[in-house]
C-alpha cells in the first residue's frame, strides 16, 4: 500500500464507487469520460495493492441488530493477543489499538453478557466500558469528505443511486446469512461468485440483493487508507456535550474533512468520532480551534490510533497492521 499514489482519475473512481458501490464500470467510465477497461484496471490495481475495496454491509438500523463501542483499557503487553482474539470474532469490526496498546476500541454487533464478562476477567485488562451506538451521522449517503470531493455536482447527480428504505424492519433469512459475509469481503463480487457462496441460483441472489438495497438494509462503502489522501495521523475522539446539543454538534462536524465517522453513543461521552489529520500539529489546530469552539462541546478526549487488528468488513490478519503516525 505504501507504494500506491492516487492521481485524479483514481480519486474520481473512489468517489464514484462511494456513490454506488456496484455501479457497472461502463457507467462509471461514461461519467468520468474514460474507457471501461481503464476504470476496471484502476480499481483492480488499487484492490490488489490493498489500497481500496468496496464492501457491502448490513444497516443495523434496518435489520434489528444493535452495535456497541467497547473501550478496553489494558496493559500494553496484553494488547496484541487480545486484539487478535477479538478480531477473529464474527460479531466484531473496527478492532483498533489505541495509545500504544494501553486501550482497544471495538465495535461489536449485539454483544452478549459472556463477552463483556469474559473481557473483564481477562488478565491485564484494567477496565471495560461498553457504549451503545445510538445513531450514526455518516453512512452510505454521507461519507468521509476526504474521499468524496473529486467529482463535480453534475457527475455526482449522474452516478448517485436512489437510496432505499422506508424505515421498516427487514427480517434477514438463510440466504442473507450466506450472502452478507461474501459481500463484506468483496462488495463488487460478481453474481456467479455470490451464487456459489450462497448456494443458490444467480437469479435468486440478484433478486435478493436488489430487495435488500431497495429496503435500505444493505449499503456499500469504499474502504481506503486516509494516508493515501495525505492524512497521516488518526485518533478516536470522544466528546461530551451539553444536553440537547449532540445532534447539532455531530451535524456540524460530519461535513469536515477531518471527520471520517461520527455517531451518538451512550455513556459519559455523547459522541464518538474517528478523526484523521495530516499530522499532530494539524490535529491540535482542529481540536482547539474547531471542535473546542463549537457551542455545546464541554469536553473532548482524543486518543491516537496506533494499529488496526480489523477494519469494517475485513478478514483479520494474524497481526495488527500499524496505523499511520
Overview of the molecule:
InterPro entries: AsnC-type_HTH_dom (IPR000485), Dimeric_a/b-barrel (IPR011008), Tscrpt_reg_AsnC-like (IPR019888), WH-like_DNA-bd_sf (IPR036388), WH_DNA-bd_sf (IPR036390). This is AsnC family transcriptional regulator. It holds the Pfam family HTH_AsnC-type. This protein has 325 residues and is α+β, with helices and mostly antiparallel strands. The chain is 35% helix and 27% strand. The chain has 12 helices and 11 strands. The strands form 2 sheets. The protein has an 8-stranded antiparallel β-barrel with strand order 2-4-3-10-7-9-8-5, surrounded by 4 helices. Strands 1-6 form a two-stranded antiparallel ribbon. Strand 8 and strand 9 form a beta hairpin. It is globular and about 50 Å long.
